[in-house]
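Journal club side-thread
Mid-discussion, someone asked how the predicted structure for our own chain would compare to the paper's figures. Pasting it here so we can look after the session.
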Amino acid sequence: MALKGRDIVSIRDLSTDEISEILDHARKMIPVAEGKKPSDALEGRVVATAFFEPSTRTRLSFEAAVQRLGGRCLTIADIGVTSMRKGESLYDTVRMLSSYSDAIVLRHPNEGAARLAADASDRPVINAGDGANQHPTQALLDLMAMQEAFGTLSGLKVVLLGDLKYGRTVHSLSLALAQFGSEMILSAPKALALPEDLRGELDALGAKISEEPELKRAVRDADVVYVTRIQKERFPDEGEYRSVAGSYRVDASVLEGAKPQLIVLHPLPRAGEVDPEIDRTPHAAYFRQAFLAVPVRMALLSSILPPGSGG
């Protein structure tokens, strides 16, 4: 019950023990996520999913999680059909949603929007991505995919590849990996390097970090390659985007010298940075990773809104 009523705005909001507890809970939820076992853990609950930025996996997996647990969703999937188009503030929109629901899942293009929402709401707020800042529940399912493959998170060598500057999934995941003592190898175009403030925070946590821009060398001793899309929508300047577009790609030749047990993860969608030929290899774990979003979000929601905690 430690998570009861809590906001989850950043992966920093969760201790190592709490993350481990969520992952343990999520493993037990897999049969429910597969439709093999019923659950009424969220019976009578209403969760508002407010997505002011495009989403497929995150929105649908949250909604699947709520419904698999017997709850119901109020969904905003297009800012254009809300009163924000009339000039209503995000603060007021969230205040309204908190009066209609038991929890709010928010995605917004602006960094800090989830923190503002948490301040506005008297119901728990879960950050489903705020600009280039954080995506804590993605980090949880990324960790579960790694733990499922290797049985542990401690001591893993993880290549973080691609857009490390604007990639909110990497920002959350790197902080979580530091908590578990995993080694990180950063591989990115110079223009997309990890932000200095985040690198400083990771260093302060004692994270084991190295840099290897040459992809084949980075992958050689890795257990996990975590690939990210270059996010055109985050770039303030189109010329900057064009200078790095298509600058890396994971294909069979890149993985030739990799460990047999290496897994390739990707938060998806992909846009050419993982060759579809990888789908047919044992290295491909990104579709399993996408499925794990459901039990992980089920575990989190049922911990934040446990039965009998009021409505």
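Post-session note: The chain has a mean pLDDT of 92.
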